[in-house]
Amino acid sequence: MKKDDFKQKTHELLDELKEFIENMEQKADEIADDAKEGYYKQLKNLKEIRDNLAAKLDEYEGITDTKWDVIKESAEDFFESVVDSWKKNFSRVTEAFKKE
Fold first, then answer.
1. So where are the chain's domains?
2. Cα angle at 76 between 40 and 65, to 5 degrees?
3. Greatest extent of the chain over all pairs of C-alpha atoms, in Å
4. Which of 8, 30, 12, 31 is nearest to 20 (CA)?
5. Within 13 Å of residue 84, how many CA atoms lie on the same side as its CB?
6. Pairwise CA distance, residues 11 & 17, whole Å
7. CB neighbours of 7 closer than 8 A, spacing ≥ 6?
8. Contact assessment for residue 66 and residue 15, using Cβ atoms and an 8 Å cutoff
9. Which of 99, 80, 78 lies closest to 34, judged by CA?
10. Which of 8, 86, 89, 94 has its CA 20 to 30 A from that of 52?
11. Which distant-in-sequence residues (6+ apart) come within 8 Å of 85 by Cβ?
């Protein structure tokens, strides 16, 4: 993955996460009482994913192309783990709506 591709994909995922979290916060009152604790836990997990992603993006923004070649693989692994975690938590949060 090229540095610019990584940055673009990371920005897109970060924007998607931010929007999803905002929507979920607005709908929190609609969750059944027995599902709220799990809902808020997953929402917290998504916020942590968002914050970690934003921090890594800031870290990678200033990396020179020569350094990028050295850390490219770890950046790709990080991105994949964030995507996997996001998908996992997304499905858990959406499950809260199905319990109503």
1. 3-98
2. 125
3. 52
4. 12
5. 6
6. 10
7. 57, 60, 61
8. no
9. 99
10. 94
11. 45, 49
Per-residue pLDDT of the chain (100 residues; tens, 9 = 90+): 777 887 888 888 889 888 888 888 888 777 778 778 888 888 888 888 889 888 888 887 778 778 877 787 787 787 788 778 777 777 776 666 665 4
63 three-state secondary structure: coil
Return the structure tokens found at 75: 């950046």
Which residue in 82, 21, 77 sits closest to 49, CA to CA?
82
**Rounded to whole angstroms, how far apart are CA atoms 36 and 5?**
37
Residue 5, amino acid: D
